[in-house]
Amino acid sequence: MRKIIPVFLLIAFFSQNLYAQKTVRRKKHINAKEKKSTKKTIVKYGVASFYAKKFEGRSTRNDEIYNSAKYTAACNVLPLGTWIKVTNLRNHRTVIVRINDRMNHKNKRLVDLSRAAARDLGFLGRGVAKVKVEVLNNFRP
Q: Which positions carry the signal peptide feature in this UniProt record (predicted)?
């Protein structure tokens, strides 16, 4: 009987270590998945305007020809080629546009939208609007 108790204790001790190692491995696996799925979404608030008619047909910063019917924008704080969702804070309309141009460095506005985007957001008559800009990670049109 005395020989059985130490053997039984050893078996119990080693089985706890094996269980603890499996638990740690499982947690590491879950954390790796969480890191991949928790990208921060960049959100900015500011004032939006839209391009004047005189810019129609001119070259943008990334060598595209500006077309007021396309959903594009100029922005100084986000990289060229970034897709953004712009929400008009007055009427909560949204539009998705691609940044393909820069604004004058003296301009304090957050984004300058194409006429089509401004029309959909409902501020062509006002000229400017307070907006929320969200960067769309991994967006493909």
A: 1-20
